[in-house]
Amino acid sequence: MTAGELMTSPPVVIGPDAPVTEASRRMRDRRVKRLPVINSSRHLIGIVCRADVLSVFGRPDAEIRQESTEEAIAECFLMDSKPFAVIVHNGVVTLTGHPVNDQAGHELVERVRHIEGVVAVLDRLSYAGKV
Known about the structure:
There is one protein chain. The relative contact order is 0.12. A hairpin with a 2-residue loop joins strand 3 (84-89) and strand 4 (92-97). The chain is elongated and about 50 Å long. The protein starts with a helix and ends in a 6-residue tail after the last strand. It is an alpha+beta fold. It has 5 helices and 5 strands; from the N terminus they run ααββααββαβ. The chain has helices at 3-6, 20-30, 50-57, 61-76, 102-113, and strands spanning 34-38, 44-49, 84-89, 92-97, 120-125. The protein has 2 domains: 3-57, CBS-domain, CATH 3.10.580; 61-125, Alpha-Beta Plaits.
């Protein structure tokens, strides 16, 4: 640990439900190598380090695509995945297709956003009210 990390005030922390992209951004912006993870009572429950963050971004695009297609679309939403296209490039998922309704589309985007290794989701779904 460097002197800068020891002297950070206020301390740079993160909550347990924060996305890995937020942890990465916070580490970069505040120039720290580790982030204490605290719960709502501000008790320490863990520590995330750069290696933890980087390991998520190392997940192959093909695995992310498979999980997005098979688990998010087919299993979670019980939808046929054929009307959807899932393209993954460097962890960025682009979703196109026609969900059965707006709510299902928004929930699908949120589910994919939480898949390990996903950096961002580009919502290109065709919603009923969207022109």
